[in-house]
């Protein structure tokens, strides 16, 4: 049997649907999905099987114009993921079309794309009429020589199987890179932290989405098969701590319950989750926090 394996980088603007597509391809919730931009910080890899091919997805942070160190590190991680991949998929939202952000990405692709297989996936196709879709596809293909164009709805699954089959055929012949039953190479500690951060992001909305981070401090396997997970939520000021805790601790309680439920479903066993909130004014400037998120601190310079 000839097997294929390789890396597929999903790139695009924040909120283009990369995480939703990754989860649809892999068949499990590996990457965080929220309606907030810039929620994917680390290069989370999901592993999908398609026939004799193993596709290892690199879910890159959304590409945008960076302002702070964290932003710069995220953008560097995204382009690094694309440069290292065997195949790149640019995702563009059908209803938003060619934005300034998409223009910037097309310029970046021209720099790294030489000799690389790049596909175009126009996502959220249910939001615009067919003739507009065709016009957008033609316009984008006139600006960059995409190997193939796919019309998809990551949320509903339309066109996703065709894209996965095509990607599988483009990967190099290679032994599989991961055991067949392994869906992500991200340590469980980080996946658990991302789940909690997602619940915080959804709960707190605009209040402090990027001024906090979550770390799994301890992971203890218990004799009864359950796991005890201790996490710290770092915020940058005292006032933020109060927001995260909520009135009479209601916010953190509901976040903890939601994160625990999702973690239990993911692991298929009981989890005891304990959350603490700590103020660290400079966490955005600490190299250690970046490595916890799978980012390179130096890339933020």
UniProtKB/TrEMBL annotation:
GTP binds at residues 12-19, 59-63, 123-126. Residues 204-281 form the KH type-2 domain. Residues 123-126 are annotated as: G4. GO terms for biological process: ribosomal small subunit assembly. It holds the Pfam family MMR_HSR1. It is found in: Cytoplasm; Cell membrane. InterPro entries: G_ERA_dom, GTP-bd, GTPase_Era-like, KH_dom-like_a/b, KH_dom_type_2, KH_sf_prok-type, P-loop_NTPase, Small_GTP-bd. The keyword GTP-binding applies. Transmembrane segments: none annotated. CDD domains: Era, KH-II_Era. Keywords: Cell membrane, Cytoplasm, GTP-binding, Membrane, Nucleotide-binding, Ribosome biogenesis, RNA-binding, rRNA-binding. It comes from the Bacteria. It is a peripheral membrane protein. Residues 38-42 are annotated as: G2. Monomer. HAMAP family: GTPase_Era (MF_00367). This is GTPase Era. It comes from Leisingera aquaemixtae.
């Amino acid at each position: 049997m000839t097997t294929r394996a390789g890396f597929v980088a999903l790139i695009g603007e924040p909120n283009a649907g990369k995480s939703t597509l990754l989860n649809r391809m892999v068949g499990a919730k590996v990457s965080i999905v929220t309606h907030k931009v810039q929620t994917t910080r680390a290069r989370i890899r999901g592993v999908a099987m398609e026939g004799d091919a193993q596709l290892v997805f690199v879910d890159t942070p959304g590409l945008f114009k960076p302002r702070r160190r964290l932003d710069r590190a995220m953008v560097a991680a995204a382009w690094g993921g694309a440069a290292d991949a065997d195949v790149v998929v640019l995702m563009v939202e059908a209803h938003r079309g060619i934005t300034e952000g998409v223009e910037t990405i097309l310029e970046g692709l021209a720099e790294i794309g030489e000799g690389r297989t790049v596909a175009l996936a126009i996502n959220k196709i249910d939001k615009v009429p067919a003739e507009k879709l065709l016009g957008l596809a033609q316009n984008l293909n006139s600006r960059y020589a995409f190997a193939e164009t796919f019309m998809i709805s990551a949320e509903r699954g339309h066109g996703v199987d065709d894209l996965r089959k095509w990607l599988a055929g483009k990967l190099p012949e290679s032994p599989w890179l991961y055991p067949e039953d392994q869906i992500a190479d991200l340590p469980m500690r980080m996946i658990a932290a991302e789940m909690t951060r997602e619940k915080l992001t959804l709960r707190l909305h605009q209040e402090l989405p990027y001024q906090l981070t979550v770390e799994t401090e301890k992971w203890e396997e218990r004799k009864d098969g359950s796991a005890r997970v201790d996490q710290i939520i770092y915020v940058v000021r005292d006032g933020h701590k109060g927001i995260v805790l909520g009135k009479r601790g209601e916010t953190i309680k509901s976040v903890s319950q939601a994160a625990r439920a999702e973690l239990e479903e993911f692991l298929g066993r009981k989890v005891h989750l304990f959350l603490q909130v700590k103020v660290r004014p400079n966490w955005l400037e600490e190299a250690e926090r970046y490595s916890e998120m799978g980012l390179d601190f130096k890339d933020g310079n």
